[in-house]
Every structure is written in C-alpha cells, then in structure tokens.
Amino acid sequence: MTDSSATTGPTGYSDAFLPVRVPLPAPHDATAVRELAYTHFTVLLDTDRRLARATAVNIDGGALLDVGRGDDWHLDPRVPADQQTGPEVYARNDLDRGHLVRRRDPVWGSATVAGRANVDTFSYTNAAPQAAGFNQSKELWLGLEDYILNTAQASGERLSVFTGPVLADDDQEYRGVQLPRLFWKVAAWVTTEGAADATTGSTTDTAQDAAPALAATAYVLDQTPQLGQIDLEQAVAARPDVPLLGPYRTFQVPVADVASLSGLDLGPLPTADRFSVARALTAGARGWLELDALADIQL
Fold this sequence. Notes:
InterPro entries: DNA/RNA_non-sp_Endonuclease_sf (IPR044929), Endo_G_ENPP1-like_dom (IPR001604), ENPP1-3/EXOG-like_nuc-like (IPR020821), His-Me_finger_sf (IPR044925), Non-specific_endonuclease (IPR040255). This is Endonuclease G. By secondary structure, the chain is α+β, with helices and mostly antiparallel strands. It has one domain: Extracellular Endonuclease, Chain A. It contains 7 helices and 14 strands. The chain has helices at 87-90, 111-120, 136-142, 144-151, 229-238, 255-262, 277-281; strands spanning 26-27, 33-37, 41-46, 51-60, 95-99, 127-131, 158-165, 173-174, 177-178, 182-191, 213-222, 249-253, 264-265, 289-290. The strands form 4 sheets. Strands 2-3-4-7-10-11-12-14 form an 8-stranded antiparallel beta sheet, sandwiched between helices. A two-stranded antiparallel ribbon has the order 1-13.
C-alpha cells in the first residue's frame, strides 16, 4: 500500500489535530510574516528579523519513531537567503543553532513521513541563535514536551506546541541579526480529568465537567546576561564582535504573559491556562515560577 502523504507536499500544523480547535498564532501588529508548512509543523517567519515569529507543531506521542538525528542544516529554497539567518551567523563562535520545533516532536507516522519531518526540522527557518552549552535549566526546557505527555493525561497522547523567540526592538545585533534573549513555549492538550478554572487553577471532576477540555501551560527560556546595564554596555563596547548571552533560566509563566511578550493572538490558550493567577502570585514579583526540576511544573 502506498503512503500518499509521502508523495504530496507537507501540510504543516493542523489546527484540528486536537479535539478542540487551536488556530495558529497571529501577530497583533502589521509585521509581515511568511507562513511555511513543513511535515507536521509550521513556521511563521518574520522576514525583516530573519527569524521565526512563532512555530507550531503537532505531536502524536503514540506514533513517534526513532530516526537518526543527522545534522544537515539547510536554507529553505522557498525563501530568499537574505530573509533567513543562515550558517554565517553561527560560524566561528559560541552560538548554537537552537531548534525551535524540537527535532523529535514532528517525527511520527510512517517511516517515510517521519524521516522527512526529521530533515525538515533542520531548516534554518526553524533555528534561532542560542548560547552554546547546556545547564540544568536548558535541559528542563528540552524535556518539557516529554514531561507533559507523560504527566498531563493528554487525550490520545496528543500535544500541540507553539514556540518562538521574543523579538525585542533592543536585542543586540550580531552579524546583521538581532539575537533574542527570551524564548517562549506554550503546550496545549485536551484532557478529560476535569476542566481548569482560569482564576483558581483548580479542576473539577464531576461527570458534568468531565467532557474533553483544552489545557495549556507556558514557559520562558531566558538567556539574558546577569549583569547590570552599565556592565552590559561596557562589555558590548569592548567586544562588539562577540554575542553577549548569559546562562539559561527556565520559568513557568502565565500564557497571557507569553501573548503579551510575543505580540501574538494565542486564541483560546490563555483561558485554558493551568498555571493559575493565584499560583503565579506566589511565584515571585512577576508571577513567574523559576523551574529547578520538571516536577516543579504546575499542570
């Protein structure tokens, strides 16, 4: 039997993947973004900043395949090279090509489709400059999807994940590209364990409320250097050719904060947030909970 999906072009992210429709994020402003469909995911490319404004991926946890990683980073031929952040930005420095859609997430389905998805994740449109090396907080960031799939009782082991950099006007420019300091991620799934109350964060388990309900949580990865503003200015002036980024810190944050930071309409996700206002207020002045372990996540 022929796999027809292997002979057609990629359809990208599906807003009907979950039982509750979740549309692609949409910019509030007039920023020009180009929608690029790949296998099981979509990139919204900000052609002025040469980086994704957002990505969206469908993850079928029950159909994931193990595929050899590869490392064939490539420009997307559908987009002019000068609208992408290509290899010249990552050469001879301590910057990593950070996957926005995690390599493993869209790698499901038939072997042919999964292999194509794996290759697609190595498009430069799906990368953003990140500080090289790992620490505990970066490892937490990379493990969020697996933890949610294993812990949140996601219906059908399905998850939709939205990720992107915060494209701030004052991001430091390096080799013609402004380097994001913050990255965000929102995970969405459908649960039947009870609907979350957006005000209290509590769930109800009565039969009446046990219908499938959308749930979401949001996270921010911060690579802002932990220095005073004067120190930052001096460091940039002394070595303008060296990207100035700090150690990673990962936070769980209200989905509404991600919508504000990113300037995106996140549709039904803010009202489906499992990280309640009441809990957020105990997390710190900003209402952000710094994560030291995956078990700290509030689902």
